[in-house]
Write a structure and sequence with these properties.
Blueprint (H helix, E strand, L loop, with lengths): L10 E8 L6 E12 L2 E8 L7 E3 L9 E12 L3 E7 L2 H16 L2
Antiparallel strand pairs: 1-2, 1-6, 2-3, 3-5, 4-5
C-alpha cells in the first residue's frame, strides 16, 4: 500500500477511481468493505444528499455531509488509494453492514 497503513473494514479512503462511462480518473472518497490480496472492495460515497444510501455526517468524521452508496460497490487495487481519511465508529459501521445484509437478503 502506498501510504504504508493497513486497511480495515470501515475505513474511509480517498482513491483514484475510473468511472465506467468515461476514461477519466477522479479522486473520490470510498468506504472500505474489505481487502484481500491487494484488491479492495469499496462502496462509493457522494456529496449528493438526494441519493439513496446511508448518511455520513461531519459528526461521523466526514469533511462534509455525504451518502454511502451501497448500490455502488466495486473493486480497486490498493495502489489506487491516495490516503485514509478516517474510520467509521462501530455504531455507523454496524449500520452499514446491517443495511448491506438487508439488501443481499432481498436477492
Amino acid at each position: 500500500m502506498r501510504f504504508g497503513k493497513m486497511l480495515n473494514s470501515g475505513d474511509i479512503i480517498l482513491a483514484n477511481i475510473q468511472f465506467v462511462d468515461t476514461s477519466e480518473i477522479k479522486k473520490r472518497p470510498a468506504l472500505v468493505l474489505f481487502e484481500e490480496s491487494g484488491n479492495v472492495i469499496v462502496a462509493g460515497i457522494t456529496s449528493n444528499l438526494k441519493m439513496n444510501g446511508i448518511k455520513l455526517t461531519k459528526k461521523d468524521g466526514a469533511i462534509k455531509d455525504s451518502i454511502i452508496k451501497l448500490n455502488y460497490i466495486f473493486t480497486i487495487s490498493e495502489v489506487m488509494i491516495e490516503k485514509k481519511l478516517f474510520a467509521l465508529n462501530n455504531l455507523k459501521r454496524k449500520e452499514v453492514y446491517n443495511e448491506l445484509l438487508n439488501k443481499l437478503n432481498k436477492l
